[in-house]
Amino acid sequence: xxxxxxxxxxxxxxxxxxxxxxxxxxxxxxxxxxxxxxxxxxxxxxxxxxxxxxxxxxxxxxxxxxxxxxxxxxxxxxxxxxxxxxxxxxxxxxxxxxxxxxxxxxxxxxxxxxxxxxxxxxxxxxxxxxxxxxxxxxxxxxxxxxxxxxxxxxxxxxxxxxxxxxxxxxxxxxxxxxxxxxxxxxxxxxxxxxxxxxxxxxxxxxxxxxxx
Length: 212
What we know:
Order of helices and strands: HEEHHHEHEHHEEHH
Distance between the termini: 32 Å
CATH superfamily: Uracil-DNA glycosylase-like domain
Strand content: 5-15%
Helix content: 40-55%
Number of helices: 9
Strand order of the largest sheet: 1-3-2-4-6-5
Largest sheet: 6 strands, mixed
């Protein structure tokens, strides 16, 4: 299924940053679902508003809820390691957000109602940033865009045709990799490293085309 984005005409980084700030302000006051009652803060985003890559995760955890930034806990630190090894700069190359912006109690999987309540913010972020690449980090993020039943292990590492002008790939969530330490060929960590190198190659290709 192809997904449509809003035409917001954000032509440069300054305009994108301003539009995202306005959307963030609305999000931080949101009471569209029950999660606003237990949040410390809405976790909107981190990274470069004009980044070529958008990484979409599941939901904030305790560290994210406390700081207001996504992927800052143990899973985020592991993600940083993998990104660095692949030659992808988190602050320059990525705009990072989650499917939902408030932490579910006990870090449970977000409900469909909660995802629907946050859908406008997520589509708004994609529409403003207009990345060249989207990474769906884990099953929950992938479920937000893929209608068919799937296992993340079956679809990860493949370029998906979900938007007309954005390359999309599903990857393992780093929290899953925290439980899988092996680096043997075919292991989740080995596959993650390979996927990120594939993504870096795509990023380099896009930059070469832009420069020419």
